[in-house]
Design goal:
The protein is an alpha+beta fold. Helix content is 44%, strand content 20%. It has helices spanning 3-19, 26-36, 41-51, 56-83, 112-127, 129-148, 154-174, 211-220, 234-242, 254-267, 281-285, 291-300, 329-344, 346-358, 415-424; strands at 200-205, 225-229, 247-252, 271-275, 303-312, 318-321, 324-328, 365-369, 372-383, 404-410, 434-439, 441-444, 451-455, 458-462, 466-478. The strands form three sheets. Strands 7, 8, 9, 10, 11, 13 and 14 form a seven-stranded antiparallel beta sheet that branches. It has a four-stranded parallel beta sheet with strand order 2-1-3-4, with helices on both faces. A four-stranded antiparallel beta sheet has the order 6-5-15-12.
Length: 485
């Protein structure tokens, strides 16, 4: 008997064994589950639930799963169903109560539901193993339901699952997962490996989402010390902690991390960062997204040296920044956002503040660069190169490149149009609306007394003779490193 004939016979026998077998509870559950996956509705709902947890890894997993599903669905409907014209199984042996109310009218090979399920589950797992493990049983149940309800042969399901998994890997080829990207932060440096967290003193900002994060950290590092304090006491408590710590830690947003930088530099201490704020750009850029990442790095002694941005003005304030420093409309946006945030939330407040600024009659800032007076709406200086278009901070692949990512939106009429054009332009393009450069330092003169600036989300006033530069590889920071590095 030819191999093809034997395989078809095995396919039919397997279908009969699954479709005619009575499994307790399955007659009601599997048909409903199968219908819920029509048009990907089940998976889009799961993606929304995963994304709603709020962690960056979960949001990436949800987006990657949905993208993989979309590609798999397109491949099945445009190529798969048209390439193999296979009839659906006969329903003679399938009990009526488990048959779908509306039978599919398309060809049987491959199973689109199985392709979507496998694509979504594989895409999620490629970004997050934990979420992938949670989704995989549901995906397997959906694939099984297609045979159990009598609408597909087992080979249809297997082919669909293989196509779906392939679509997820194709998406990863186009948009690599975090583990395939160059790890940010270099070079690797020696740092204490703290077994059980002994020697780590971590300051948790009570204004941030600290409680659940610090509790998870203490479960993994029971010998660590956690000090909870409000924003007003943070500076004093950091100084106290530095006197008894081998490693200084902070839990909070970018502003909390910024407060720890001068203390860590002054005392020569490594810094452990646990994200717990509304915005956690620095923590995410060094690869720390949750307590597990930080605990693994602290116990292994995995750390890197990162650049620190610095600003100072003659007779005025000075400070450090790990993310960004800016002049112009952005400081005003931050001020307005903070003013409304406690009423409507940070994200809604940011949108409202941006709309308010774009429709205001605010005048551009006047500043002098290299002996020439200029009008500008925005000066942005990033600590290392940001890999995203426009002025919205993106991801940095190298946190020790020795450069400032400087972008300037020139003054003139219609600030909203200019800012939008700059946001859509590439980071290295020059245009009538913007200029961009990579510099080791920048001096700004001609500023009026009390000019407002922001650094890592904090607000201050600067004056004439402003210098923005770098301290290359000045700060040691813990971050999880891949094995063998």
């Amino acid at each position: 008997m030819p191999l093809r004939t034997r395989l078809i016979a095995l396919d039919h026998r397997t279908f009969d064994a699954v479709a005619t077998r009575h499994w307790p509870g399955a007659d009601r559950f599997l048909p409903r589950l199968s219908r819920s996956a029509n048009h990907g509705l089940l998976w889009f709902g799961v993606a929304a639930g995963i994304a709603a947890t709020g962690s960056p890894r979960a949001r990436r997993a949800a987006l990657r799963g949905s993208s993989s599903l979309a590609l798999a669905s397109a491949a099945v409907n445009t190529l798969g169903k048209r390439s193999v014209r296979r009839a659906r199984p006969l329903l003679d042996g399938v009990p009526l109560m488990r048959q779908l109310k509306r039978q599919p009218v398309t060809t049987s090979f491959p199973s689109g539901h199985s392709a979507s399920a496998a694509a979504f589950a594989t895409g999620v797992a490629l970004e997050s193993r934990g979420w992938g493990a949670g989704v995989a049983p549901v995906a397997a149940a959906v694939a099984l339901s297609r045979v159990y309800t009598g609408v597909h042969f087992p080979s249809d399901v297997l082919a669909g699952a293989a196509l779906g998994a392939g679509a997820a890997f194709a998406v990863r080829g186009m948009v690599p997962t975090r583990d395939l990207l160059p790890p940010p932060g270099r070079p690797r440096v020696d740092a204490p490996a703290l077994r059980g967290g002994e020697g780590l003193v971590l300051l948790a900002n009570t204004a941030a989402r600290a409680p659940e994060r610090t509790e998870a950290l203490l479960e993994a590092l029971p010998l660590a010390e956690v000090v909870r304090c409000g924003p007003q006491e943070l500076g004093a408590e950091l100084e106290k902690a530095a006197g008894r710590a081998r490693v200084l830690g902070v839990c909070g947003g970018d502003g909390t991390v910024n407060a720890a930088v001068p203390v860590a530099l002054r005392h020569g201490l490594p810094l452990a960062v646990l994200p717990g704020g509304t915005l956690n750009h620095f923590a995410y850029d060094i690869g720390v997204e949750d307590p597990r990442d930080l605990c693994r790095a602290v116990e292994a002694g995995d750390a890197v040296a990162v650049d620190v941005g610095r600003f100072s003005s003659e007779g005025g304030p000075q400070g450090y920044f790990l993310n960004t420093f800016s002049l112009g409309v952005y400081p005003e946006l931050v001020r307005l956002r903070d003013h409304w945030a406690h009423r409507i939330g940070s994200r809604a407040a940011a949108v409202l503040a941006a709309a308010r600024l774009l429709h205001s009659d605010r005048q551009p800032l006047s500043a002098e660069f290299r002996g020439r007076q200029r009008a500008l709406w925005l000066l942005f200086a990033g600590n290392c190169t940001y890999h995203r278009l426009g002025f919205t901070p993106g991801r940095r692949l190298d946190l020790a490149d020795g450069l400032l990512d400087v972008r300037i939106v020139h003054g003139g009429r219609k600030p909203g149009t200019r800012l939008l054009a700059a946001a859509l332009a590439g980071p290295l393009r020059r245009s009538p609306a913007q200029a961009a450069a990579r510099l080791s330092g920048l001096r700004v003169d001609g500023l009026e007394e009390g000019t407002v600036a922001t650094y890592d989300g904090e607000v201050t006033a600067v004056r004439d003779g402003l210098l923005i530069d770098k301290l290359p590889e000045a700060l040691t920071v813990y971050r999880p490193l891949p094995a063998g590095r």
